[in-house]
Structure formats: structure tokens, C-alpha cells
Design a protein that fits this description.
Vanadium-containing Chloroperoxidase, domain 1, mainly alpha, 2 domains
């Protein structure tokens, strides 16, 4: 860490009343045209999020400040683009670095609205795309709608890891927590790095390698879960500390998205859409990933018969390991992410997978928040779904890569599946279906 960043962190730690403003401004600058490329905003956001998690700010306040700061950065960048239009190329920063604008412009013209969602997670593109959207006269209402959605996922992805780290450092965790956390985090980091390296280098069987490594890590977790009690207890205490009456209702709605009947209906509709469109290889991949994950999860639950945490007033009768909600959500959304990225460059394919993982992660975390699963349960569910999804993809494109879906098929399958997912979850909640039944 550089001396100036050390000094800033030390000053904010000594003056926590300024921390909220710092998060807001750093998030704004990180999403501001040109400035976001020059300032190491990602590092700064992690540093201030650690300080916030150390007791200065709640998780909700931290995410909200980053969210609104990012929205302001987007709005200013869009306004700059609308004001200058093509004259923007003569601005001081872009005059000497025209590639910054050219790359973002080509990306926006190729992917349109999707570029604002996906490009949010690609460093050099994030601050430039809103300005390009304004320069090319994207309708203001459409830009606002996309920005509101993109900023929400970005705030969670960039602030939550730092905040959780700070909170973990603050809590009186069991003595064995950190060695267990380091071992598990190291394994997941190796999995992600190997998978990303294989994808970026366009290795032929990168999916099979990633799937095999994911299932190998899952096997280690399955064998070692009785010795992960301190890790589970510590993480569960960390999440339970954030409980509030206002957040409980939201988390129940989120967890409904992962219910068996909800996921079954959405997955069946997705597969039916692919069947009607005669997308045979895409259908083979989707069925292999979704059905394989469901069957494997049921078998593992019966094999390990692990009891759930004693948080609920009324205990559930089914077993918890691996989490069915986590495995079903990751399988469904990863399938969508894979299909969305077909026919696109490797970096964009990985970004689609990151985007797809965010709603699945929210569903998985809701289970820990509500006290119906241990953290290792949802990690095991994610590894199971990721491994089988990768293996199904590798097998379906063993001879040749899976081709991209046509826009007509994609815009039929995606809104229908997601709409059904949300409709069933909302109906279950409004109908008063008890959480404990599942």
C-alpha cells in the first residue's frame, strides 16, 4: 500500500465522521469520466469499506453511500457527453489518450444497453461508457433505468468484500476462524484464477478444467466440513449481527427466488424456450447443468444429513448440506450467464458470469441471514452448481464451441424466465407461504 493511501486510511480511522463522505466521493470519482481511469478507485473503495466494517458504518449505509456516489458519477459523465458531443475528443485527457474513448465507443455501439451493465465491471470502460452514452444521445430515461440497476450490483460487488473483512476483524471470532477462512479462501481464489486464466487464453477444455477443479474443492469441503465449525460459527455471527426487522422482509422475498418450485418453473421455462427455438446444444447444456445439480444436491443432502443452525424458532425438517437454494440459484443464473456470453470475447464472457453470480449470491446469503443454512452449506452449493455447469458446458462443446443465441431467442427466453421467477416468488410471499415449510 502506498504512503499516501496509508495516510488517508489512518486519517479516516481517526476521523470516522468523514468516512461516509469519503465513500460517497470515491465511488463518484471511480465512475466519473476520465477521472475514474486515473484514480485507483477500486483499491480506495476496498480500504474505506474495511474501515466502515470495523464499526464505523453499517453494511446498509456503506452500500447506499457507494450506490448514490456511483449514480452521481454516472450522471455527471452522461451530462458531459450530452453537452460536448463529438467535441469531447478535444478535452485535455482524451486529446492525449484517444484510445480511452475509441474503445468505449466501439464497445457501446456493439452491445448497446448491455454495455452499461457489463462494462460496469471492466475497469477502463466503467467511467467512459456513461459519457459515450450521452455523446451518442442515448435517451435519458433509458440511461437512468440502466444506471439504477448497474450501480446496485456494482456497489455490492465492490464494497461488500471490504466491509465483511473489516467486520470480521472487529468481531471476537473463535480462535480457529482465520486459519480455516484462509484455507477456504485460498482454495476458491485458486479456482477462480485457474478458470479465468484458461478462459482468457481461449484454452479448448478450460470449462472441463474449471469444472473438475470446482468439484475437487467441493470434495475437500465435503470431507472437511465437520472441522469447519469455527468458521461457520464466526461467519454466521457476522451475518446475524446485521439483522433488522426492515431487512427481514426483503431477505424473505430474496430467498423465495431460490425455492424449489420457483427454480423448477423458471428452469423448465428456459429449457422449453430453447426447445421451441431448436437450440439443441444450448438445451443439452442447460438440462445437464440444471438437472445434474438438482440430483446431485439431493443425493449429497441425504448422504451427509447435516442439521441446520439453531436460529429459527421452528426448525426445518430437511437437511442443510449443501444448500439447495444456493445450488439451484447458481445453476440457473450461471446457465443464463453462459448463454449470454456465447460468441463474445473472453473478458466479456467472464463479466457476464460475474453479473449472473450476483443474484445467485444474494439468494445464497439470504439463507445464512435467515439462519436456515451454515455458510459452508451455501459455499458447497455454489461449488456444486459451478462445477456441474462447467462440466456440462465442456461436454456440450466438446467438438466445437457453443454458438451464440440469436437476439430473438435470447429476448424471448430471458425476460420470460426471470419474470416467472419473480412472479412466483412474489406470489408465495403475498400468499403467506411460510418460510419454514421449506
Amino acid at each position: 500500500m502506498s504512503p499516501w493511501l496509508d495516510s488517508l486510511s489512518a486519517w479516516l480511522a481517526a476521523n470516522p465522521t468523514w468516512l461516509g463522505l469519503a465513500i460517497f466521493l470515491i465511488a463518484c470519482v471511480e465512475c466519473l469520466a476520465i477521472a475514474g481511469i486515473l484514480v485507483p478507485g477500486t483499491i480506495l473503495l476496498f480500504a474505506v469499506a474495511v474501515l466502515a466494517g470495523n464499526g464505523a458504518l453499517s453494511l446498509g449505509a456503506t452500500l447506499a453511500l457507494a450506490y448514490f456516489g456511483g449514480l452521481l458519477g454516472d450522471a455527471l459523465s452522461y451530462a458531459i457527453g450530452r453537452y460536448f458531443h463529438q467535441d469531447i475528443r478535444r478535452l485535455p485527457g482524451l486529446r492525449h489518450h484517444p484510445q480511452w474513448l475509441l474503445g468505449a465507443e466501439a464497445y457501446f455501439q456493439r452491445y448497446g444497453v448491455a454495455s452499461l451493465l457489463v462494462g460496469r465491471y471492466i475497469g477502463p470502460l466503467r467511467p467512459m461508457l456513461p459519457m459515450v452514452a450521452g455523446m451518442l444521445n442515448m435517451p435519458l430515461g433509458r440511461f437512468i433505468a440502466v444506471s439504477l440497476l448497474a450501480a446496485a450490483g456494482w456497489a455490492v460487488a465492490y464494497l461488500l468484500p471490504g466491509w465483511a473483512t473489516g467486520a470480521a476483524l472487529r468481531l471476537p471470532l473463535p480462535p480457529g476462524f482465520w486459519p480455516q477462512a484462509a484455507l477456504l479462501a485460498g482454495g476458491i481464489a485458486v479456482l477462480l484464477l485457474v478458470s479465468m486464466h484458461g478462459s482468457l487464453r481461449e484454452q479448448r477444455h478450460a470449462s472441463l478444467s474449471a469444472g473438475g477443479l470446482s468439484l475437487l474443492l467441493l470434495a475437500g469441503l465435503l470431507l472437511g466440513w465437520p472441522r469447519l465449525g469455527q468458521l461457520d460459527q464466526g461467519l454466521l455471527a457476522l451475518v446475524q449481527e446485521q439483522r433488522s426487522a426492515s431487512l427481514d422482509s426483503l431477505m424473505v422475498l430474496v430467498t423465495r427466488l431460490g425455492d424449489f418450485t420457483t427454480q423448477l418453473a423458471a428452469g423448465a421455462l428456459l429449457c422449453l424456450s430453447l426447445l421451441l427455438a431448436r437450440q439443441w446444444r444450448a438445451l443439452q447444456f442447460a438440462v445437464g447443468a440444471l438437472l445434474g445439480t438438482a440430483l446431485a444436491n439431493g443425493a449429497l443432502k441425504a448422504l451427509f444429513a447435516r442439521q441446520r443452525p439453531e436460529v429459527l424458532l421452528e426448525p426445518l425438517h430437511s437437511f442443510s448440506f449443501p444448500s439447495g437454494h444456493s445450488s439451484a440459484a447458481f445453476a440457473f443464473f450461471l446457465v443464463l450467464g453462459v448463454l449470454a456470453g456465447r460468441g463474445q470475447p473472453a473478458r466479456l464472457r467472464l463479466t457476464w458470469l460475474l453479473l449472473a453470480g450476483l443474484p445467485a449470491l444474494a439468494i445464497a446469503l439470504s439463507r445464512v441471514y435467515l439462519g436456515v443454512h451454515w455458510p459452508s452449506d451455501i459455499i458447497a452449493g455454489a461449488l456444486l452448481a459451478g462445477g456441474l455447469c462447467a462440466l456440462s458446458l465442456g461436454l456440450s462443446q466438446w467438438q466445437r464451441p457453443l454458438t451464440a443465441l440469436s437476439a430473438k431467442v435470447w429476448w424471448l427466453a430471458l425476460p420470460a424466465s426471470l419474470g416467472l421467477l419473480g412472479a412466483i416468488a412474489t406470489w408465495q410471499l403475498s400468499a403467506g407461504v411460510l418460510l419454514y415449510r421449506y
